[in-house]
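Suppose you are handed a protein chain with no further information: no name, no annotation, nothing but its sequence. What can you learn? This example shows the usual starting point.
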Amino acid sequence: MEEELLDVYTRDGKYLGVRTRAECHTENPGFYHKPAWTWVYNSKGEILVQKRAMCKKRYAGFWDMACAGHVDAGESPMDGAIREAKEEIGLDVSKDDIKFMGELIEDEDYWEIGQIFFIKTDKEINEFVLQKDEVEEVKWLSFDEFKKLFYSDIWAPCSDEYKTLIISMFDKIFSKGKVIALCGKVASGKSTYAKELRKKENAIIFSVDELTYYMVDNKKGEDYTELCRRATNYFKNKSAEIANNGGTAIIDMGLWTKTQREDIRDFFKKNDINFEIHYVKVDDDTWMKNIEKRNKRIDEGDQGYDFYVGEGLIEKVKRMWEEPNKEDVDVIYEVKYND
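A reasonable first move is to predict its three-dimensional structure. Written in structure tokens, the prediction is:
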């Protein structure tokens, strides 16, 4: 069997060349290698841990991070982390699904510059496929359960500095707030739902209709579509800022098409923000009654932030609207007409 080769470096990261794994693991080798240390967590705020296989030479039967391993010579640390996740626990991810969090130098015993990666997934335990000669079992733990195990004598030994760093990283992730984007037709009841949700989530509402009302009095000029696009981009960035500081934001918009829903989800995923799409669903009969009620209110001078929904807009919605499926959204809220 051909011996495993690893890239090696000085302590400050200068590339030195290639050495065998055995050479890297000798006592005080005089150079460092860069293993991939990968942590996995989910939307519930749980952390995935693995029990090391009983056949392992070191720390057999101890609990450890979700997956870790050496990075092959010529392989990037991220590619190594992706490969190890697939091999050890059957977690198939792309570079868009994994985030580099930083590195930690371990001088004593290991001579490693550990490359720390985080992956978010909502897989159930029975969906993980374990490499039996590496992993005995995996389980999800709450953050409090994880911290108790992490500092116990059945966790694979690691430095206090590393433990403090990992806890601080998860603290930052789990203390983040959330962004909820509303999806639905005009006059479906999104604004009413947003106000109900605001009380429940103690959230801030960003409304495209409200902003355009103050800026152009909801007049539909040739620049209106561009104004709405810019407003949406502004709300996305401000919502991310709020979530990063532990708050919750609701974006009251439309998300009429599948592409729009995919784009906004990708934006918050890339920014590592907890994100949900809530679909305010309305049947055709209720929708038309909502429009009639809304237009009557506007005719009587009680406009608020709403604009009149005429035949042209109704036809535009029908033409552009793409009905979400259960995979497109996180919550479906069905509206029933109320006289």
